[in-house]
Structures are given as structure tokens and as C-alpha cells.
């Protein structure tokens, strides 16, 4: 069993969001970088749990990014995984990134590709589906549970107002979210082991970018809260009805 | 040439509200590009397809066979790709809901057509094709230029108003090949009778300020009175006071209802990330310094246990 886990680098959830270069670039000044939470807490930890059950499992991590993504991928290796691959390319186009991952996945013959539900900076929710299409294999998105018996995966995914469970024979691409696993904290042994785990750097395959970022912006600031006294809830309801037209 | 809209249906075959938004949005783009809006719908449908014409779709391609009754993004993508080719679609519109998030990226890779997922406004076609989308979990937006001949847009739920006018759509049976799927759906669970969180116009949400699960009766009562869905903060779901599918925020579900009522929730940045696209935010908190007030439109500083029952009573009175 070979698992490929997609790991991306994102700004910390509390990072201040600002832009430079005439609003065309994210201002990375003072930003703390983390492993995208969905990739770390759910995709990676679930892969590690599968390996803990079946020692014959190999886990490879992949990131598409420049050299400054290496501390992040080492941090991921400290949680678990046998080796990491960094595709040496920087891109904001989902299709370009997915093409790189699909190429590595093809070469490596993985049975399972795990991604996070979305990156918390780009919010694309796209890369998993694109990888699956490029490999022409099934894709289960927004998974909350993943069980494996031999080559048969039983996966539960979110649907509007509920959940759906399905069965699919490997290989499959799965995007992971809350429910898949519980967050883990890397221990000292893991951190030490990560230092010597292989981190391969490969050059990108030829691929097109289909989109480009024209610019960023911030939403207009709120006008400020209108406070209603606690003994006059009727007034709040009136405002919501007449002024905000929300009820 | 056309604008093709994916009309998404639920497990029971009814057309989702998010699809009506996608149709209204796609019809407006068709008008902008001086072309027609067509739709594609897969599997069994309950309800009246021609009447969707009132949202601006002129022709609906219905592909109906057993293989399409259950959701399988791989199968659906191949079918939609064929319909897109037959209709000469230049713009393909999805809702960025659970199904859209699975199919739109696949279709993008299949057709090598640039995708903007999480769109919140109509495309700017004055110079190229640029679409505004949310990034950084709603804390910012980006304008994305699509550089391919065919463009795919996945529209965020609740980001575009449904526009109903006059008209009837012509429904045709599409002539496409369907492959058997590799995904076998074995079980569907739905929280019955309630409003699904992601489709709700109004959401009543409560946090640790409610003290314990036994106090949620009044939250549910308020939600019922407002015909709203219920939600909660992460610690509340983690403590199993409420089911996990109610957890909103960075690590939970992201929602954008017309009205979000937050009770006894402090307003941590990770919570706001999932709700800050709501049109109107009401905060009820006993601490005037709670950070949530900075993101709110209306607020009451006070005790939730006193305010919630009064709130419910006042709404009942309003609705007569
Ligand atoms: C990486 C990361 C991701 C996270 N993701 C999420 C997420 O997706 N969603 C999420 O919600 N959180 C998330 N969190 C947690 C988040 O930081 C907060 O800890 C959490 O939102 C707090 O929940 P709360 O507001 O219910 O509780 P508290 O912060 O404990 O706030 C309770 C509030 O209730 C008020 N209160 C108390 N009693 C009353 C009363 N009688 N009447 C009225 N008000 C009262 C208090 O004044 C207080 O403001 C995340 C954290 C991290 C680090
Ligand atoms: N640069 C990247 N390198 C490796 N994996 C990535 C990268 N960007 C995104 N991913 C994976 O794809 C998932 C979805 O990303 P997105 O489509 O951008 O929201 C993430 O949760 C990651 O698992």
C-alpha cells in the first residue's frame, strides 16, 4: 500500500492579511507559516493511522513549492511519513499544481492520494479533483471518515444537511476534513527522525497555468455595531425586520 | 456558443436552491456575452424542469439513466463534458456546493478550462475575463483572470440573488454516452425536517456561553421560530454538546446566510473565518469587550439566558 499525502504551506490562521506591489502580492512580512490545517490534522494523520495498522504501508508527502516550503514539509515528516518530495515550482494556478502532483503520482504508482479539503489561503477546494481527473480515477471530496479493508475503501463524505457513505476500490483521491482523524502533536522522537528522512527535490513537469491573479483586495470595513439595550429585544427584532430586512 | 449551467439535484431528485442561484447567475452572464443560457441536469428529477425557465435558462439537457442517480464525480464529469461540447459552451457555471466542489475541478482538468472556485460576483468581461473570489477564508478577495477559451466558474452559495422572471425552458434528452461508475453509494443520512446549514437563509448559532447541551432547547426554539438552521462554535462540537456537522468556522463549515445570530460566542478569528460572509451579523454576548462585536451589525450586551426567550417571543409577535 502506497499513500501520497499532499501538503501545502499556508499563513497561520491569525496572520494579518495585507497586500503589496499595487495589491498584486500577499504581504508575507511577519507572517508565520504553518502546514495547511486540513492537510496536517486530517489527511496526514489518517494516513499515519493506516500505516500504524498495516506496517507494509509507505507514506510519501508531496509539496509543490520553492525551497522555503522545506521547514513545513520537515514539520510534516516529524508527525510521520517515510519520505517527502518537493516539486521545485511556485504557482498560484490550481491546475499547474495539480499537474505536478498527478505526474509524481503516476510515476510512483500510489494506491491512495490524500489532500486537505482546501487551502486556507486560496480556498480552491480544487486540487484533489483535478489530480483525480488527470489520473482518471475516482475522487471522494470532503471526506469525514475513511476505512480500508484490503483494496476496498469505505468513505463517508459531507452532503448538504447530512452524510453519504460509499465504497470504492483503490486507487482513489480523497479530500479530507474534520472527522477523518484527530490532530496530533509531533514528539521529540518524530522531530529527530524527520531530520534524516529523505526529502527529494524534483524539477516541475511541463504544464500550463490556466488562470492568473489580477489583484487582491480587502472587503469594505463594517460600519460598526448598532447596540440595542438588553431590556429591549423587541427593538432588535424591529430593526432586523424593517432596517436590515433580514427577518 | 452558450453559457452552460450545471443544475444540481439532491438525493431525492429535487433541484437545490444553490442551483437556482447558479441559473440566475449564468443567465446574467449569457446576457452579458450576448448568448443563451442552457442547463444540464443528471439523473432522476422530481419537480418541474420547464419552470426553471423563469430564472433565465432557455434549454435544459436532461441525461437520465440509472448510473446517474447516485453521485459519482468521475461519471458526471464525463457526461457534462460531452454536453458542453455539443452546446459549444464557452462558460460553464456550477454552484460551489459539495457536488460542485467535486465536479468543477475535474471538468477543468478534463477540458483544460480555467476554473474560478468560490466566485462572489459576475465576471468582468470588459478586458479579458476576470472573476472575483473569496480568499483567506473570507478575509480578502482576489480577482482571477481565466486565460483559456472555455471558462468554468463555481459560484459560492448565497453570493448571488435568485432572480425570477417569466419563461419556460425547453427540456431535451441529451444524447451522450455514460460509463458505469466505480463509486457505490451504500448509505445516506440526512438530518430530517431541519433546514440544511449551507442552504439556510438564517442561522442561529451558539457557543460556550450557553454552558451545556441541556440549554440548547431555547436555541432550537428560536431557530424554529425564524425557520433557521442551527450552528455552533468548535469547542461546543468538540465537547459533543452539538453534532459535528453544526460546527462552523475555519475548520468546520463555511456559511454565508443572510442573517447570522451568534449567541455566547466570543468571535475568535477562526470562528469568524467561517461566518464573515454573512450579510447581517447579530451578536448577543454578556461581555461588551467580546471581539465578535467588531464584526457585528447589531448587538445586545446581556445574558443569553434572558435574551433568547424574549427574542423568540418578539419574533412570534412579529409574525403574528
Ligand atoms: C487552528 C484553529 C482552528 C480553529 N477553528 C475553529 C472553528 O472552525 N470554529 C470555531 O468556532 N473555533 C475554532 N477555533 C477555536 C477558536 O479559537 C475559539 O477558541 C472558539 O471559537 C471559542 O468558542 P466560543 O466562542 O464558543 O467559546 P469562548 O471563547 O469560551 O466564548 C464564550 C463567550 O460566551 C460569552 N458568554 C458567557 N456566558 C454568557 C451568557 N450567559 N450570555 C451571553 N454570553 C455569554 C463570553 O463572554 C464569551 O465571549 C480554532 C482554533 C484554532 C487554533
Ligand atoms: N502547493 C501545493 N503542494 C502540495 N499540495 C497542495 C498544494 N496546494 C494545495 N495542495 C493540496 O490540495 C488541497 C486543496 O487545495 P486547494 O485546491 O488550493 O484548496 C490542499 O489541502 C493540499 O492537500
The radius of gyration of chain A is 21 Å
CATH superfamily name of chain A? HUPs
The DSSP helix count of chain B reads 7
Which molecules are bound besides the chains?
Answer: flavin-adenine dinucleotide, adenosine monophosphate
**DSSP strand content of chain B:** 25-35%
Reported CATH architecture of chain A: 3-Layer(aba) Sandwich
Distance between the termini of chain A: 54 Å
CATH topology of chain A: Rossmann fold
Q: Which overall shape of chain A is indicated by the principal axes computed on the Cα atoms?
A: globular
Rg of chain B (CA only): 21 Å
What value does the average pLDDT of chain B take? 95
CATH hierarchy, class of chain A? Alpha Beta
- Order of strands in the sheet with the most strands of chain B? 5-8-4-1-2-3-9
At the third CATH level, what is the topology name of the largest domain in chain B?
Rossmann fold
Poorly predicted runs of chain A are none
- Estimate percent helicity of chain B: 25-40%
Brief summary of the model shown:
The complex is a heterodimer of chains A (247) and B (320). Chain A has 247 residues and is α/β, with parallel strands linked by helices. Chain A contains 6 helices and 15 strands.
Question: What would your notes on this structure say?
Answer:
The complex is a heterodimer of chains A (247) and B (320). Chain A has 247 residues and is an alpha/beta fold. Chain A has a single domain, classed as HUPs (Rossmann fold), CATH 3.40.50.620. Helices cover 29% and strands 31% of the residues of chain A. Chain A is built from six helices and 15 strands. In chain A, the strands form three sheets. In chain A, strands 11-10-9-12-8-1-6-7-13 form a nine-stranded mixed sheet, sandwiched between helices. A two-stranded antiparallel ribbon of chain A has the order 2-5. In chain A, strand 9 and strand 10 form a beta hairpin. The radius of gyration of chain A is 21 Å and the shape is globular. Chain A starts with a strand and ends with a helix. The model of chain A has no long low-confidence stretch (mean pLDDT 96). By secondary structure, chain B is of the alpha/beta class. Chain B has two domains: 172 residues, HUPs (Rossmann fold, 3-Layer(aba) Sandwich), CATH 3.40.50.620; 123 residues, Rossmann fold (3-Layer(aba) Sandwich), CATH 3.40.50.1220. In chain B, 26% of the residues lie in helices and 26% in strands. Chain B is built from seven helices and 15 strands. In chain B, the strands form three sheets. A seven-stranded parallel sheet of chain B has the order 5-8-4-1-2-3-9, sandwiched between helices. In chain B, strands 12-11-13-14-15 form a five-stranded parallel sheet. Chain B starts with a strand and ends with a helix. At the A-B interface, helix 1, helix 3, helix 4, strand 9 and strand 10 of A face helix 2, helix 3, strand 5, strand 6 and strand 7 of B. The site of flavin-adenine dinucleotide (FAD) has 25 residues of chain B, from helix 5, helix 6 and helix 7.
Amino acid at each position: 500500500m502506497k499513500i501520497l499525502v499532499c501538503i501545502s504551506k499556508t499563513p497561520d490562521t491569525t496572520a494579518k492579511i495585507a497586500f503589496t506591489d499595487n495589491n498584486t502580492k500577499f504581504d508575507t512580512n511577519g507572517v508565520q507559516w504553518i502546514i495547511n490545517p486540513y492537510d496536517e490534522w486530517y489527511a496526514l494523520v489518517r494516513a499515519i493511522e493506516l500505516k500504524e495498522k498495516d506496517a507494509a504501508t509507505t507514506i510519501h508527502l508531496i509539496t509543490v513549492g520553492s525551497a522555503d516550503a522545506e521547514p513545513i514539509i520537515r514539520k510534516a515528516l516529524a508527525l510521520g511519513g517515510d519520505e517527502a518530495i518537493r516539486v521545485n515550482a511556485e504557482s498560484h494556478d490550481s491546475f499547474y499544481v495539480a499537474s505536478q502532483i498527478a505526474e509524481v503520482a503516476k510515476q510512483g504508482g500510489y494506491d491512495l492520494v490524500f489532500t486537505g479539503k482546501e487551502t486556507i489561503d486560496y480556498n480552491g477546494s480544487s486540487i484533489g479533483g483535478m489530480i483525480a481527473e488527470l489520473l482518471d480515477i475516482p475522487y471522494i471530496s470532503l471526506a469525514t471518515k475513511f476505512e480500508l479493508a484490503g483494496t476496498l475503501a469505505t468513505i463517508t463524505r459531507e452532503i448538504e444537511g447530512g452524510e453519504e457513505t460509499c465504497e470504492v476500490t483503490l486507487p482513489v483521491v480523497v479530500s479530507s476534513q474534520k472527522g477523518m482523524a484527530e490532530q496530533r502533536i509531533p514528539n521529540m522522537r518524530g522531530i529527530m527522525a524527520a531530520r534524516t528522512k529523505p526529502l527529494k527535490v524534483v524539477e516541475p513537469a511541463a504544464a500550463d497555468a490556466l488562470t492568473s491573479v489580477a489583484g487582491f483586495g480587502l472587503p469594505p470595513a463594517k460600519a460598526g455595531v448598532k447596540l440595542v439595550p438588553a431590556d429591549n429585544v423587541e427593538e432588535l427584532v424591529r430593526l432586523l425586520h424593517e432596517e436590515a430586512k433580514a427577518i | 456558443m452558450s453559457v452552460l449551467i450545471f443544475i444540481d439535484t439532491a438525493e431525492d431528485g429535487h433541484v437545490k436552491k444553490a442551483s437556482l442561484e447558479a441559473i440566475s447567475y449564468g443567465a446574467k452572464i449569457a446576457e452579458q456575452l450576448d448568448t443563451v443560457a442552457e442547463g444540464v441536469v443528471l439523473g432522476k428529477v422530481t419537480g418541474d424542469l420547464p419552470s426553471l425557465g423563469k430564472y433565465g435558462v432557455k434549454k435544459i439537457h436532461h441525461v437520465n439513466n440509472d448510473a446517474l442517480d447516485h453521485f459519482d464525480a468521475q461519471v458526471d464529469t464525463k457526461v457534462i463534458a460531452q454536453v458542453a461540447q455539443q452546446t459549444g459552451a464557452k462558460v460553464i457555471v456550477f454552484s460551489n456546493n459539495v457536488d460542485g466542489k467535486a465536479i468543477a475541478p475535474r471538468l477543468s482538468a478534463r477540458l483544460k478550462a480555467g476554473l474560478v472556485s468560490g466566485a462572489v460576483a459576475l465576471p468582468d468581461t470588459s478586458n479579458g475575463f476576470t472573476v472575483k473570489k473569496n480568499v483567506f477564508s473570507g478575509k480578502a478577495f482576489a480577482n482571477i483572470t481565466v486565460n483559456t477559451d472555455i471558462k468554468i466558474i463555481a459560484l459560492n452559495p448565497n453570493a448571488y440573488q435568485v432572480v425570477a422572471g417569466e419563461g419556460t425552458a425547453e427540456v431535451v434528452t441529451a444524447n451522450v454516452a455514460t460509463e458505469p461508475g466505480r463509486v457505490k453509494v451504500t448509505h445516506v443520512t440526512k438530518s430530517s425536517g431541519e433546514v440544511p446549514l449551507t442552504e439556510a437563509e438564517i442561522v442561529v448559532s451558539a457557543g460556550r456561553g450557553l454552558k451545556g447541551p441541556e440549554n440548547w432547547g431555547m436555541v432550537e426554539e428560536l431557530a424554529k421560530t425564524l425557520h433557521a438552521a442551527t450552528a455552533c462554535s468548535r469547542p461546543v462540537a468538540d465537547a459533543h454538546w452539538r453534532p459535528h456537522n453544526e460546527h462552523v468556522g475555519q475548520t468546520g463549515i463555511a456559511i454565508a446566510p443572510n442573517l447570522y445570530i451568534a449567541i455566547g460566542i466570543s468571535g475568535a478569528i477562526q470562528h469568524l473565518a467561517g461566518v464573515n460572509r454573512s450579510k447581517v451579523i447579530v451578536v448577543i454576548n454578556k461581555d461588551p469587550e467580546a471581539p465578535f462585536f467588531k464584526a457585528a451589525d447589531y448587538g445586545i450586551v446581556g445574558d443569553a439566558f434572558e435574551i433568547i426567550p424574549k427574542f423568540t417571543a418578539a419574533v412570534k409577535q412579529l409574525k403574528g
